[in-house]
Automatic annotation (TrEMBL):
<dbReference type="GO" id="GO:0000160">
    <property type="term" value="P:phosphorelay signal transduction system"/>
</dbReference>
<dbReference type="GO" id="GO:0003677">
    <property type="term" value="F:DNA binding"/>
</dbReference>
<dbReference type="Pfam" id="PF00486">
    <property type="entry name" value="Trans_reg_C"/>
</dbReference>
<feature type="domain" description="OmpR/PhoB-type">
    <location>
        <begin position="1"/>
        <end position="98"/>
    </location>
</feature>
<dbReference type="GO" id="GO:0006355">
    <property type="term" value="P:regulation of DNA-templated transcription"/>
</dbReference>
<dbReference type="InterPro" id="IPR001867">
    <property type="entry name" value="OmpR/PhoB-type_DNA-bd"/>
</dbReference>
<feature type="repeat" description="TPR">
    <location>
        <begin position="361"/>
        <end position="394"/>
    </location>
</feature>
<feature type="DNA-binding region" description="OmpR/PhoB-type">
    <location>
        <begin position="1"/>
        <end position="98"/>
    </location>
</feature>
<protein>
    <submittedName>
        <fullName>Winged helix family transcriptional regulator</fullName>
    </submittedName>
</protein>
<dbReference type="InterPro" id="IPR036388">
    <property type="entry name" value="WH-like_DNA-bd_sf"/>
</dbReference>
<keyword id="KW-0802">TPR repeat</keyword>
<dbReference type="InterPro" id="IPR016032">
    <property type="entry name" value="Sig_transdc_resp-reg_C-effctor"/>
</dbReference>
<dbReference type="InterPro" id="IPR019734">
    <property type="entry name" value="TPR_rpt"/>
</dbReference>
<keyword id="KW-0238">DNA-binding</keyword>
């Protein structure tokens, strides 16, 4: 990575980081950034920038170059009158003002250290090996994009500032035992989250696997619960999803999120009446509905049973969380998702929270979903735009709201806006081509090659399960049958054209005997 003043850029200029803020750049913006930064301090004419764009197969005009430059200035927060990064030479071109510096290492999510008491060489090396094993055990329990680091010495305040959580250790060798103490802190303000003492026989007669695994499990549990209790920043995830994200163990995107279910189940067993853990469990069940279909591990019967359990948990605990806005908005989100006739209750809960002193950015997305569900698309788009206005470029919150906005445009039949905004999303988040892009094609469009390859690998039964997943996770939340069909109809038509199978949604019977027969034949295959 290269640093320019307070911004650290990756080598391809796809992203830049300023503290906790992540900025993403489109293809056009990256092309100009690469050309400008490679020629820092030198004047670059519009013709030179146009040549750079042409060499990258990006067809641009003088006017569009100026437009991209203006977008860059907005993202860099650069003042045209007092520029820090990019100066304009009127009538001539542009100059990148700053020379690059080597960027600091990426910020760690958990930093093991500082470590005290490792002064005796006879046990320093084995203990450090134990801490390395601990680092690996913690890393295996959280999302792969969350870095776990370890210091090589007592550490400094600067180390602590370069992580989100610090795990401090002190050791004392005494009477054939090593006594240890760990302190988990929130690095930003050194708040103590947990303290644990332990003792090990010395010298180590065997690997300390059980100690390492137990400590790692406790540390991750403390972090998850700390995040759930304190909510999240608006540029990470929306507030109504904070319990859900915590219950999924920091947004894991694979089967490892099941470990968080074991953790919450244990807490529930200790105190079944605790509303926080009950709603966290409901949120974990919500995650199983979202992820299990992608792992081939959810049928209609199990989905229905899971949604009934979510409903019971939410309704039973709603009267007990009168003064807890986070839990109430989480209940509203869950009741909206399971779509079991609670729309008026959900709307009243959201209105109640909206009127309280709570971050509006966290409520705007759910308000937008409720308006879109009733077909009030202009109002829905305004709420989504409000949320995007306060979102930082490149944040999870921005991506989350952008996808909800695309869904509303699809349901509304506003195809021109949908195509324009989807293309902008794909430029900022290329990975969404393989996820969002799969579901928003027109009925007569062929599948992209990567989409076709994925669906071909599933077989006809699996392909129909994907259409059903789209219906249950998105389409069914719209009240109008016409709006529901717009969500799944294009994808279902593409599937029918390629695979010869017909999806019949649960909200209606087959339109004809032949349609019913096709659906039955597929379910039996």
């Amino acid at each position: 990575m290269k640093r320019f003043l307070d911004l650290a850029f990756d080598d391809e200029m796809k992203i830049a980081k300023r503290g906790e803020e992540t900025i993403r750049f489109s293809k056009s913006e990256r092309i100009l950034l690469l050309a400008l930064t490679k020629n820092h301090g030198r004047l670059m004419s519009r013709d030179a920038l146009l040549n750079a764009a042409s060499a990258a197969d990006d067809d641009r005009s003088d006017r569009s170059i100026d437009y991209v430059i203006n977008r860059l200035r907005q993202k860099l927060k650069d003042d045209v009158k007092s520029p820090r990064f990019l100066a304009t030479r009127y009538g001539e071109g542009y100059v990148w003002l700053v020379a690059p510096q080597e960027a600091e290492p990426d910020k760690a999510f958990v930093l093991i250290g500082p470590c005290y008491g490792l002064n005796d060489e006879t046990f320093e090396r084995p203990v450090r090996e134990l801490l390395q094993d601990l680092r690996q055990a913690i890393a295996s329990r959280i999302s792969p994009d969350r870095k776990v680091s370890i210091t090589t010495g007592p550490g400094t305040n600067g180390d602590r500032l370069n992580c989100e959580y610090s795990l401090e250790f002190a050791f004392l060798q005494e009477a054939g035992r090593i006594h240890g103490r760990s302190i988990l802190r929130l690095a930003s303000n050194t708040q103590i989250i947990s303290i644990r003492k332990f003792a090990l026989d010395w010298p180590f007669a065997e690997p300390q696997e059980s100690t390492v695994e137990g400590l790692a499990a406790e540390i991750v549990e403390c972090i998850v619960l700390h995040k759930s209790e304190n909510g999240t920043q608006r540029n990470e995830i929306p507030l109504e999803l904070s319990m859900h994200e915590a219950s999924r163990l920091l947004a894991l995107a694979d089967t490892a999120w099941l470990k968080s279910g074991e953790m919450i189940a244990k807490k529930r067993a200790e105190d079944p009446e605790d509303s926080k853990y009950a709603i966290m469990w409901a949120s974990h069940l919500y995650a199983t509905i979202l992820f299990a279909p992608l792992l081939g591990d959810l049928n209609d019967e199990r989905r229905a049973e899971t949604e009934l359990e979510i409903e019971a948990l939410c309704l039973n605990h709603l009267p007990r969380v009168q003064g807890h806005a986070i839990l109430r908005i989480c209940i509203a989100k869950l009741l909206f998702f399971i779509d079991r006739g609670h729309m008026e209750l959900v709307e009243s809960l959201v209105s109640e929270v909206y009127e309280q002193e709570i971050s509006f950015s966290s409520v705007y997305p759910l308000l937008g979903q409720l308006k879109a569900a009733r077909g009030h698309f202009d109002e829905a788009i305004r709420y989504f735009d409000h949320a995007l206005h306060v979102a930082e470029t490149g944040s999870k919150f921005e991506l989350y709201v952008s996808v909800l906005r695309l869904k509303a445009l699809l349901a509304a039949g506003r195809r021109q806006e949908l195509d324009r905004d989807a293309q902008a999303l794909f430029e900022l988040y290329p990975e969404t081509i393989d996820t969002v892009g799969l579901f928003i094609g027109k009925p007569d469009d062929p599948f992209r090659p990567q989409h076709a390859a994925y669906l071909d690998s599933l077989g006809t039964r699996g392909v129909l399960a994907v259409v059903s997943y789209l219906y249950h996770s998105s389409a069914r939340h719209f009240i109008s049958p016409e709006h529901r069909e717009r969500i799944y109809g294009g994808f279902a038509a593409q599937v029918e054209k390629r695979y010869g199978v017909i999806f019949v949604p649960p909200d209606r019977h087959a339109a004809s005997p032949s349609e019913a027969e096709d659906a039955q034949n597929l379910s039996d295959s």
